[in-house]
Amino acid sequence: MTLKKDKEGKLEIVSEPNIKKECKEKIEELNNDKFFSTKSMNMYGREIALYYCNALHEGLNNPEPLQLSQNTLSKNFAKLKVIDRVINKPLEEYTSEDMNSFMTKFINGELKPGRGKEYNPNSLSDYVREFKRLWKIFRQYQINHSPKGFDAVKNEWGLNLKAPKIVKKIYENFPDLSVAQITNLADNMHKEEYRLRVLLSVNLMGRKCEISNLKIRDIDFKENGGVWVKLPDIKKHSSDKVLVELFSFVKKPLMKFLDRADMKDQDLLFPTRDEAFAKNLRNVSQEIFNQRINPKTLRKLGVCIAEKLGYNRADIERIGGWAVNSPIIEHYFKRKGVGVIKKSDKAIEKELHSDMYEEFEKFRLKNKELQSQVNSVTNKLKDQIKKRVDQQDMTFKALEQMKEQALKMKVFAEFQRKISNKLGLDTSELPGLPEITKLPELKSI
Fold first, then answer.
1. Are 193 and 272 in contact (CB under 8 A)?
2. Which of 178, 305, 388, 406 could be cross-linked to 436 through a Cys-Cys bond (beta carbons 3.0 to 4.6 Å apart)?
3. 277: Cβ–Cβ under 8 A, 6 or more apart, which residues?
4. Taking a C-beta distance cutoff of 8 angstroms, is the pair 306, 316 a contact?
């Protein structure tokens, strides 16, 4: 027990070392009826404070009482104060319409916390959760202390209240960067550790807490030259982590970093505070892209990069450890102990050197067009040569026939002269025969 109620109904701290200043101030404001807008809300605020900090209050069990040495109590009351500020009436007068109106304004961005900021619509469920706890205490208190004048059934609406589901989109509220832009962002970070952390956060799709707790022992160097990393299991409800092979543009800077660093297996890979890294990341991204990027955004960018490089949804889910019904990953696929090998370096190189690949594609198309023209000219030349060859073959055959005929005529003339001489005939009276002694030669084409 850390809180109790005195005879006047005020809160009294029993024993709590290292109590947070914010918690102490809120308890004092509740006792003085100055935290909420009405006296009724402050009274029930004291009742829920007793419930928060004790295992049993008004007959209701609390399995995990809060400690005043932490900020959780202060954060819960801050959410309740937002609801009280909007509705601004005693808790007994609250209706379901009041809460529905509050949720609508919250989602539509009509409520402003100040300093130009806006409430995140996805956090509405946290506000509804704390209100349901307050309503449960209010309802139970009325049952215990005013059983005749309170309709418990009529006031069950507060226990059944649900926040509308806000569907998140993968490419919502953060830039869709290419691999080349990611490497450019990393190159402009102020420390080598920061540069490597940007690349690993994208490659492993790791949460901020997982990346910051990554140790040297989580890195596995394979005999074939590949480098695999397994993120530590930090988040309670995340799926089991698997070994993931690093991209080539991530492996090289990691090897250089480890060669220069004197680290042991138990050492953290990134010992610098998360706040310092996040600040540098915001400033550099604002300077380059005119948009601030935080460590959580790097995890989402990892999904975009993986989709571009050909990873399927099952691979992405296993790498990032997304839970069932995640608004970012629609399907959940859990396979223990199955590693995820990196895809072809060709796709990575194309993303890294997109300008060069565009020039190469233009050259390839031009070369294809020229080759088509060369093939067309070659085919025409072949047709012409074939015709000339055919003509030469015909001429050669004709000359061969003429040669054969001339030889026959020459033989016949000789035979005729011999017969004439034997018979004593005058050869001059015989019809003349052509004198063929040499055939014409064929000229090459």
1. yes
2. 406
3. 193, 194, 197, 270, 295
4. yes
Burial 48-85 (b: 16+ CB within 10 A, else e): bbbbbbbeebbeeeeeeebbbeeeebbebbebbbbbbe
Task: Indicate the SS3 state at residue 228.
Answer: strand
Tens digits of residue pLDDT in 191-226: 999 999 999 999 998 888 899 999 999 999 888 888
CATH number of 179-352: 1.10.443.10
Please state, in angstroms and rounded to a whole number, the distance separating the CA atoms of residues 384 and 389: 9
pLDDT tens profile 360-419: 778 888 888 888 888 888 888 888 888 888 888 888 888 888 888 888 887 777 777 777
Copy the structure tokens of residue 352: 């890294």
> Amino acid identity of 284?
V
pLDDT at 445: 42
* 78 touches 94 (CB < 8 A): no
Question: Per-residue b/e over 186-215, b at no fewer than 16 CB within 10 Å?
Answer: bebbeeebbbbbbbbbbbbbbbbebbbbbe
pLDDT digits (tens, 9 = 90+) for 174-188: 567 888 899 999 999
Q: Where are the domains of the chain?
A: 3-156, 179-352, 356-429
- Cα 111 from Cα 115, distance rounded (Å): 12
Interacting residues of 104 by C-beta distance below 8 A, sequence separation 6+: none
| 3 pLDDT more than 70 | yes
Distance CA 271, CA 269 (A): 6
